[in-house]
Amino acid sequence: MIVKLLILLLVGLAIYKFFGGKFPTFGKTKEEKKIEEDTLVECENCGTYVTLKESIVSEGKHYCSKECANKKTGK
After folding, report:
1. Confidence at 16, pLDDT banded by 50, 70, 90
2. Is the pTM of this model over 0.70?
3. Residue 38 and residue 51 in contact, taking contact as beta carbons nearer than 8 Å
């Protein structure tokens, strides 16, 4: 009985994978990381948009350059 159940499970798994099924992944995929890195954020000082990957974070705020991060003045 258990052997039949295991065989049925393996056949079902093979059919699922054959038709393009994907297993759930844990954590972020490469696409999600790429999208997150390419997200634009506004510089708190000058209002220039820069990618999240290239921004400089200081005190929880995003800046486009070290100069803007050092000024920390309003627009």
Report:
1. confident
2. no
3. yes
Can you read off the two tokens belonging to residue 63? 């800046």
User: How many CB atoms neighbour CB 51 within 10 A?
Assistant: 14
Q: How far apart are CA 37 and CA 55, in angstroms?
A: 10
Strand 56-58 and strand 49-51: the pairing is: unpaired
- Distance (Å, whole) CA 5 – CA 11: 10
Residues, the chain: 75
Angle at 48 between CA 70 and CA 55, to 5 degrees: 60
Which residue's entry shows tokens 């990618």?
A: 51
Q: What is the pLDDT of residues 21-48, one digit of tens each?
A: 776 667 666 777 777 778 899 999 899 9
